[in-house]
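Journal club prep — side note

Before the paper discussion, L.F. wants everyone to see what a predicted structure for a comparable chain looks like in token form. Sequence:
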Amino acid sequence: MGKGWDFLNQVSRLMWDGSFNPGWNEGSRVRDAIQRAGIDANALLKDVADNPDKYDALIERNHQMHLTNSCGHYGVPTFDFQGEPFFGQDRMDELVWRMKQYGLTERTNEHGETA
């Protein structure tokens, strides 16, 4: 869908916003966060319900990648870029900085925001 960063930003804030956040997964909170990420939440949730094997395979692939990553570290969230671990939301800015050193460029999304 091309919205991975937006999804990560919105949904992970439900769980890790720096405060105790009970009930982050209750009611329409997750659906609302998916919508804020610019994803049609109804379509995504229907696809998950209609194609559970597809999503189970994606989860298993991600799990296997964590077990075999080149940085030797795993957890949530962990990014491995060029063998360097970026563990936790506190290192996401450093990950983007490092990726820019390798040519990542910023772009503007459909809302005129830099992404």
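L.F.'s comment for the group: The mean pLDDT is 85. Keep this in mind when we get to the figures.
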